[in-house]
């Protein structure tokens, strides 16, 4: 095995064991691995944003194509760094407000067309089909959507039929949250299994 591959395996095993050491208690080894992970992630994303966003969308068109209009967003981007000074920190509020406003507008349109409309369309299902299992599934989905919306209807007190629907909606919500939590646990277990395979296979060569 090449030298640097061996160094990488030993370094990965060391950092993995440092993370596992938190199962005992918080310690300097865990903090070391945590800081290394955060630092590398920040550096990786900064480099990624520079090569994939800053250069192709701002710097190259500005310097090579002469699109001087891009000086406006460039100036707003520079103003963001005024946050590091006490005297001119207030200047960063202008580009921050612009970013939040534009992002909010784009997000509303995106969620409206990409999530809301598609979810409404996905719930407009026939209750009676040729296959009984599909019919049961569509009925459960429709009842869950309606009762879930009833639970979040706060303009009227949950009593009588409205209260019964809200209680049914709670059951559907709890089942949904439980399934999401179980999926999250299973995904984390997959990561744990991957790390154990790395330690026992690539590092210690106990298993193939």
Structural class label:
mainly alpha
**What's the assembly state of these chains?**
single chain
Main beta sheet: none
Enumerate the spans where pLDDT stays under 50 for 5 or more consecutive residues: none
Distance between the termini: 16 Å
Shape: extended
Proportion of residues in helical segments: over 70%
Tally of DSSP β-strands? 0
- Overall average residue pLDDT: 93
Q: Hey, roughly how much beta strand do the residues contain?
A: under 5%
Instruction: Write the H/E string, N to C.
Output: HHHHHH
- Whole-angstrom Rg: 27 Å
Describe this structure in words.
The structure is a single chain. With 208 residues, the protein is mainly α. It has a domain at 127-208. 76% of the residues lie in helices and 0% in strands. The chain is built from six helices and no strands. The protein is extended, with a radius of gyration of 27 Å.
Index terms:
208 residues, mainly alpha, 76% helix
Topology:
Blueprint: H1 3-20, H2 28-63, H3 71-80, H4 93-123, H5 132-151, H6 160-203
Helix pairs in contact: 1-2, 1-6, 3-4, 5-6
